[in-house]
């Protein structure tokens, strides 16, 4: 909890005003039983109607003032808790933005969504209740005990038995309930994970007619969550009956003892009425506090989950190298790099070494799942290697700030992600100051102008979330155009031509060759035709480079490359 509060700066004036309002509300509520006792003594007992009216008006005024103060206190409490939640949500989002791919894999998308929405909302609701009730209830209880002891004498001794019993019951129920709170949050993560997975794969599910299977999977997880929630609910349902029984027994004991003292004239009726009111307020304040206590286990579990996000230290940290002092430009070098994904049994890359020079195209080809994409993910530091070094412009990439390193890289990932908005806003992801002329040049180079020109609003035509209103080839060309808008020193294409036809592929490669200048290009590809003109081709198999050279050289020196070429181009062509 300390970690969470260290990320929040609340308005101290609002908190001070809230404390004052709560104190005034408690004082006003404590005055009512005393005024009622005075009304009975001076008005009802003496049949003095004017006194009854006077005290009645005073009590009405005090009640109205208490109502107004309570209104402002509730408003302040809501403002404070809402501001708290807004700040925490922003801090969590900013923290997640700095996560490397390893941290993202560790938490998972579904869990991070739950933590930044549902968990923060639960903590916000608890804080609201704590500020509204958690401050008022102790004040009322303490004042009630004081006034009860002053007016009731030995009758108030009933509370010395009732309150400890009530606290014991609350503690037991809270301890049992807290065990289920963390389980519920974990099971909610499972539901969100499965639901998100089903939404992303809905087309595959329908194509294979697996709707019933997925429904059964979701029903099983949902039923598990529901049974845990019902168990937690049954434990929580014991609270109100227990409080009601203790409340009823205490009230009966107070009235029984009070009637005895009234009968022997050791106590006045007005004092008994006032004392019973004070005792009721004490018990009511304990009941109010019990609501806060019952919300605490769930809120605490949510707060711990939020705290985990803040406490995680990103595995990829910034260096302090002065970016402008780089000795080289547009150069990438791998030196004996070995890399394994977190939790993997063995490295996916082993002893990778190569150099990509300015103005050259370095292509990477090989079988599926052999580590081609893993190589290019290491360059912008989405992951860091286990062993070995990667140099960009003659400097180890660990020495750069991540922001500086990525500022010179134009990255087109294997999975093309577009954002909701329009075509222009997606292109400006690569250059925030991009204008129409920049969009046209990038789109023309990426062969995207062909379909953009047919749109009704052209560059201001809408893009759905994830680019679902575009085809696979259109999304690829948009992603390439977005990288071109950045005009980087290093281009990384991770299998970015797979959805293009041969004609568009050839035209796009020719456009790139004419436009990139001295920039370095590192390209992962599956098709020989996409990399046949590359200055350097790396053949990767089982995480190792088994061949390096130009197309014609590899046909003679690398059996794996020749096998791929024969399958794709045909022996006759070779």
UniProtKB/TrEMBL annotation:
State the signal peptide span: none
Heme is among the record's keywords: no
- Has UniProt tagged this entry with the keyword Membrane? yes
Keyword set, alphabetical order: ATP-binding, Cell membrane, Membrane, Nucleotide-binding, Transmembrane, Transmembrane helix, Transport
The lineage's top-level taxon is Bacteria
Q: Which organism is it from?
A: Amedibacillus dolichus CAG:375
ABC transmembrane type-1 domain spans which residues? Answer: 18-298
Instruction: Describe the location of the ABC transporter domain by residue ranges.
Output: 332-567
Q: What is this protein called?
A: ABC transporter ATP-binding protein
A single GO CC term for this protein reads: plasma membrane
